[in-house]
Design brief:
The protein has a single domain, classed as Outer membrane efflux proteins (OEP) (Up-down Bundle). The chain is built from ten helices and eight strands.
């Protein structure tokens, strides 16, 4: 749905929104609007948050390669001490052949301090590279979001500015028609003009005033759409200080040579391919050995009673230390062809990405060619419409003079006024289309709308 439709669909909502009073009107240029959006757009804030999230992902993956230190402590008390039946090696008359012996103390406790250090893991190293590549993707996405926000803000600003300019033209036409109506009324009183001439002018004036009311509603809606794109509360009053002629000179034409590598979409697809190759390698090196070193210190004790807070105990109550270090080597010999299927899946998805890349290259070239042709056409249209405005102004001035001299009709005067209004509107629309064509061309080139 284009911006004009959005404006008039949202007009009813905007008209019913309560207006705040007592706030100073913020006067902004297009550059001011872009700077404000860069700081306040929620889309940009979320994109920057995604960068921070990806940084934390890198930190999480990196943490797996750093020493892992843990502590463990336990306590148990037997309510029924386990034991074993053993053969009685010292039989005596009346003694049983087997006796039940309990070697376990009723109270036990242990505390363990351990440290593991990953020495080698191909999966870890590639996972770290992939996490960093994901962070690069987040940065590229943020840059693309910035371009998208700038594009939306610029188009919303231009629409509001065009409606504002149309309002100025409409007010001028109303003033002009009111003056003509007063002149015709005066001539009618003197008998030099017909009542029909007066009625025609009155009818045209009423139509212009109705258009003005509609335009006022559209202006209010378009300004609120601009505020939403900027991330500004819709209650804040703003006034646009740029004009289309100034923006036409401010925004560079963008006639540089097209290079698809400058497009963020192309960069994102290439980064997706890079991640795909890393993912394939990760599955391949997953079959390689993983080597982990460990260091462990443990203290254990077995006691006949809960006497941990007593002193002067016998040696059998002491804590018994033990320390050990070593290496653990693990390797998958056969995973049921799981990694083979995973690698095949990665390659298939990569083929899809490569097809998407080819499609985008073709589409981006077409977008640039169309944008360039549109820009060149709009340049010619602006020149033509500018000449038409000058011609319409000259015709109107001549028609007014003839009418005052009594050799022209009110119908001719009304037609001249209509032609002048149409010419001015057409020139304004052509200028709007030219600036929009510049913006679309810069988008196709992958450039910023306003260079710093």
């Amino acid at each position: 749905m284009n911006l004009v439709k959005i404006i008039f669909l949202s007009a009813a909502f905007i008209a019913s929104a309560p207006a705040l009073t007592g706030q100073d009107t913020l006067k902004i240029t297009l550059n001011d609007a872009l700077n404000y959006a860069e700081k306040n757009s929620t889309a940009l804030q979320n994109a920057n948050t995604d960068i921070e999230i990806s940084k934390q992902l890198v930190n999480q993956v990196t943490a797996a390669g750093l020493p892992q230190v843990g502590v463990n402590a336990g306590f148990l008390q037997y309510t029924q001490i386990p034991g074993n039946w053993v053969k009685n090696f010292f039989p005596s008359p009346g003694a049983p052949d087997y006796v039940f012996l309990q070697f376990q103390q009723p109270i036990g406790s242990n505390a363990t301090l351990s440290m593991n250090q990953l020495i080698y893991s191909g999966t870890f190293l590639l996972g770290l590279k992939a996490a960093r590549e994901v962070m690069n993707v987040s940065r590229t996405m943020a840059a693309k979001t910035k371009q998208d926000v700038a594009l939306n803000v610029s188009k919303a600003y231009l629409m509001s500015l065009t409606l504002q300019k149309n309002m100025a033209l409409l007010n001028g036409n109303i003033a002009l028609l009111e003056k003509s109506l007063n002149d015709v009324k005066a001539l009618n009183k003197e008998g030099f003009a017909e009542n029909l001439d007066v009625q025609r002018l009155e009818f045209s004036l009423t139509n212009l005033k109705v258009q003005k009311e509609k335009l006022l509603l559209g202006m209010s809606a378009s300004l609120n759409i601009l505020k939403i794109q900027m991330g500004m509360p819709v209650q804040n009053p703003i006034a646009l200080t740029d004009d289309l002629e100034t923006l036409d000179k401010t925004i560079p034409a963008g006639n540089e040579t097209f290079d698809v590598k400058n497009r963020m979409e192309y960069q994102l697809l290439n980064q997706t391919l890079s991640i795909s190759f890393l993912e394939e390698k990760r599955y391949k090196v997953g079959k390689f050995p993983t080597l982990v070193g460990f260091l462990q210190h443990q203290q254990t004790t077995q006691r006949p009673a809960f006497n941990f807070f007593e002193s002067n105990l016998t040696p059998n109550n002491n804590w018994v230390p033990s320390t050990a270090f070593g290496l653990n080597l693990s390797m998958t010999l056969f995973d049921g062809l799981k990694s083979k299927a995973a690698i095949a899946e990665v390659k298939l998805r990569r083929n899809k990405t490569m097809n998407d890349l080819k499609t985008f290259q073709n589409a981006a070239n077409m977008e640039y060619e169309n944008a360039l042709k549109t820009y060149q056409t709009q340049l010619e249209m602006v020149a033509v419409q500018k000449q038409n405005v000058q011609l319409a102004s000259n015709i109107y001035a001549s028609t007014v003079f003839k009418y005052k001299e009594g050799v022209g009709s009110a119908l001719e005067l009304l037609q001249a006024e209509t032609d002048l209004k149409t010419g001015q509107t057409n020139y304004l629309n052509a200028l709007y289309d030219l600036v929009m064509a510049k913006i679309d061309l810069k988008k196709a080139l992958g450039q910023e709308i306003l260079k710093p």
